[in-house]
Each structure stands twice: as structure tokens, then as C-alpha cells.
Design brief:
This protein is of the alpha/beta class. It has 8 helices and 8 strands; from the N terminus they run βαβαβαβααββαβαβα. The chain has an 8-stranded parallel sheet with strand order 3-2-1-8-7-6-5-4. Bound molecules: phosphoenolpyruvate. Phosphoenolpyruvate binds next to strand 8.
């Protein structure tokens, strides 16, 4: 895959003003044709950030969802309601959400059947449900070693390549061709080496994606 996907996960770092300011700054970001950008604001500000970035090539995606269409999902986020505000993709099974939602993957089959795209995070290869994955709409995988998330410690390139190549091999045995991102303390200093790897189809960036200068440096490293 020639194109690299960069996803900025804003988590809960930014308040309302910060989210709107960052979205407005992103209107000026320069991206090469080889880069596809997604940002994931806090759910509370998803709609407004999406309105700002609506006319750009930056896709606004959700940080999580908890059901496909349940009306009784108090406090949750459903795919159907995300769809109604023109959000058509979510991060799912992020380690920070797995702490409270034990079986996020139970929703995957439904998302796949209905064509709601997602970035599925995993730490161990056996967390990937290879049997239900499909090529016919975009599913993105993200390898995220928990010890590297938000710690400033990045996995070595050898380690990333090894995991990604193992996953790619398993995917190809099922005739699947899905992009695999790496996430875990990606920053302007380490991004180029990681993004240059043929085994890495992009990065999922937390902290550094909430600072415009750092995020632009990552985006421009390609
Ligand atoms: C993340 O939240 O998925 C992440 C990788 O965070 P950070 O880049 O801050 O480690």
C-alpha cells in the first residue's frame, strides 16, 4: 500500500475551545497525496469538529462506540446515531476503552454487515477476529502495545515490523488486504522511521496529535 493513514486520537486532552481551535488550525495543514488523515475528537465535540472539517480531506471519526443500534444503551454511542451526524467510522477496542468494555468485538459483525467502518486496535494478534474481517469496505487494524501508549516509550522498528508482518501473513492466508497502523508514543522524532517501513500503513497518534505543530510535522514527514 503506497498511501499512509494518519489518525489523530484526541482522547480527552482537549476541551471545547481547544478542540475547535485545533480543528480550525487543521484547515491549513498541507498534506501530500500519499497521506490520508483522520481525527477523532471527544464525542461531545464530534459534531462541531465535523462541521469545521467537512469540506476538507480530513475525515472526522468517533473514538468509540458501544452498540450498533440499541435504544437502551444509556450513556453509550451507537453506530446508527453516529451515522445520523455523518460520522461513518470509529476507533474500536482501544486499550483505554477495553478497560471498561470487556467485549467490544461483539459489535464488529454488525458493523461489518451494515458497512460502518472502523479502526480496530489490538495488542495481541489473537485479539483480531480474522474470520469475520472482509475486504469489501474499509477495515483498518492498529497495533497498539499498551505499554507504549501515552508513555513516551515507542516500540522498536524491528518489533513493529515483526508484529505487522505476522499479521499481514495471516491476513493474506485469508485473502485479506487490510492496512495496519502502529500506535504508541509516535512523535515528530520517531514518525519518519516508522512510516517509512513497508510493513506499516500508517500511525495512530494520541498526545502528539493534539498539538498542531507536532501533528503537522508527523503529517509532513511523509
Ligand atoms: C493512542 O491513544 O492510541 C496513542 C497511541 O496515544 P499516544 O500516541 O499518546 O501514545
Amino acid at each position: 500500500m503506497n498511501e499512509k493513514i494518519i489518525v489523530g486520537n484526541w482522547k480527552n486532552y482537549l476541551d471545547y475551545e481547544g478542540s475547535i481551535a485545533l480543528a480550525n488550525s487543521l484547515l491549513d495543514i498541507n498534506t501530500s497525496d500519499k497521506v490520508r488523515l483522520m481525527v477523532s475528537p471527544n464525542h461531545l465535540y464530534l459534531r462541531e469538529v465535523n462541521k469545521i472539517l467537512n469540506q476538507t480531506k480530513i475525515e472526522v471519526i468517533s473514538q468509540n462506540l458501544t452498540s450498533f443500534d440499541s435504544n437502551s444503551d444509556t450513556g453509550g454511542i451507537s453506530a446508527v446515531n453516529l451515522n445520523k451526524i455523518n460520522i461513518n467510522r470509529t476507533i474500536i477496542a482501544h486499550s483505554e476503552t477495553r478497560v471498561r468494555e470487556k467485549n467490544p468485538q461483539s459489535i464488529l459483525s454488525k458493523l461489518i454487515t451494515m458497512g460502518f467502518s472502523f479502526v480496530l486496535c489490538f495488542e495481541k494478534i489473537d485479539q483480531i477476529p480474522f474470520d469475520i474481517l472482509r475486504n469489501n469496505f474499509e477495515i483498518i487494524l492498529a497495533y497498539e502495545p499498551v505499554w507504549a501508549i501515552g508513555t513516551g516509550e515507542t516500540a522498536s522498528l524491528d518489533h513493529i515490523n515483526e508484529i505487522h508482518s505476522n499479521v499481514k501473513l495471516k491476513l493474506s492466508k485469508s485473502s485479506l488486504n487490510l492496512p495496519i497502523l502502529y500506535g504508541g508514543s509516535v512523535n515528530p522524532l520517531n514518525c519518519k522511521e516508522i512510516l517509512d517501513s513497508n510493513y506499516v500503513d500508517g500511525v495512530l497518534v494520541g498526545g502528539a496529535s493534539t498539538k498542531f505543530e507536532q501533528f503537522s510535522e508527523i503529517v509532513n514527514s511523509i
